[in-house]
Sequence to fold (563 residues):
Amino acid sequence: MKVLVPVKRVIDYNVKARVKADQSGVDLANVKMSMNPFDEIAVEEAVRLKEGKEHHAAGTADEIVVVSIGVTQAQETIRTALAMGADRGVLIQSDTDLEPLAVAKLLKAVVDEEKPDLVLMGKQSIDGDNNAVGQMLAALLDWPQATFAGKLEIADGKATVTREVDGGLQTVAAQLPAVVTVDLRLNTPRYASLPNIMKAKKKEIAVKAVADYGVDTADRLKVLKVTEPPKRSAGVKVESAAQLVETLKSAGVL
Amino acid sequence: MAVLVIADHDGSAVRDTTNKTVTAALALSSDVDVLVVGENAQAAADAAAKIAGVRKVLLAESAGLGKALAEAVEATVLPLAAGYDAILAPATTDGKNYAPRIAAKLDVAPISDIVEVVSPDTFVRPIYAGNALETIQSSDAKKVITVRPTAFDAAANDGSASVETVAGADAPKTAFVSEEMVKSDRPELGAAKIVVSGGRALGSAEEFHAVMDPLADKLGAAVGASRAAVDAGYAPNDYQVGQTGKVVAPQLYIAIGISGAIQHLAGMKDSKTIVAINKDPDAPIFQVADYGLVADYKTAVPELMAALG
Fold:
């Protein structure tokens, strides 16, 4: 089975995003960038499918292709995935930030070319927080989708996915090929070992241009401004639980 | 311009997330229809017909719709889309699952998790875990939008719309296997007026429930948890409040043993009143709390229970 894992280079999850003074966006100059944490979980699961780790049968996946759409430096993100155990990478270079619809169309073109049996990807990127690309890719391909995966099993041409939903867990079985988007608790991604980082340097990354795929990637949304959310300020400290209840009662909260 | 709202319901009643999405829809247009997708969902459709401002309710039923499978919802909505300029759904896990799928089929950019309608084509939505708000204008003729329910007031239930049946599609390539829903008599986390949340400080699942459950019952509150507590297995996944869990905005939010990581704050900082109990006086949660009590939960919670009477 061939697995395609799209990954995105985003602001590191430990860094607090700061809004630019001119309200044109978030300041990413000199900010630490990393692989989107949900994508890291997707890469890890793909590698486990190949290694036969956890409940997966050995060789469930035989090839893992990683694709990223972004600036030249997104090659580093692909390299990280290769060091974790992916086999090769594709970078579709774009200096502008593309909207989810455009990303989904490009990924569809990559799927048409690579013909994977499974697309495994993060449920959302922690910058745009759209939570849309996986669902859109599945729609454009007319494939089934299983989002927010907390558990994945591949057997008999199906992906059986336990989804983290409001109110609990839902398990669905999607016929392959399918798109599965992953949630936080699917696994804990590994740190790449030094030998694997060295090996990853020799793995192939094909560099492409957006224009190579001939799809419409025009923006549909215009960002009018990006602002800071209203700030909350620290309130008062109370001395005891009794005083807390009294204060809440007199403020009319309780 | 007409708007279609896809309802969130449990088969017999609509959840108030639907009423809140109707409020957002009414800011786009006065012609708002509600689509109830489900299986044996007539009662939910009748309940949706009572939401104030709704023009009519459409009911679509199939086995796949009963489980809110995205493929089934998409195939049900597409034939209806021609009659609407915007399709709205609450940003629940179901809405987030099917809305982008519908948008892709219509070749439009989905607009996720809006917190404000500026005008019928301009919306505000949080990005970067709520650390920034973007105001975006859509050039698509048809819009597909998910609505963050906590950002809108619920439309009243004093309307009387008609209900008509439309064709319900199924999901041929996806099969429902099972579900494991958390059963509770407490209010739902997303809709509760009071939320008590526990963090990793509670140390174990037994302790989490021993401390949080009685307090929640005393206050008539829903129980939430930090991501750290959920990851450690102290609380089920659907308790998680935060960027990647549920976003809540109750009248009163009580955080117990929660340090206040950015990703947790993103899920609760719009609460009306925030109370934090933590033994670490430097915990970041105190920077957003209206009332802070520096104390070990082990002594503070029993005292709180006693003071509540």
About this structure: The domain at 2-223 of chain A is CATH 3.40.50.620 (Rossmann fold). The mean pLDDT of chain A is 96. The first helix of chain A runs from residue 37 to 51.
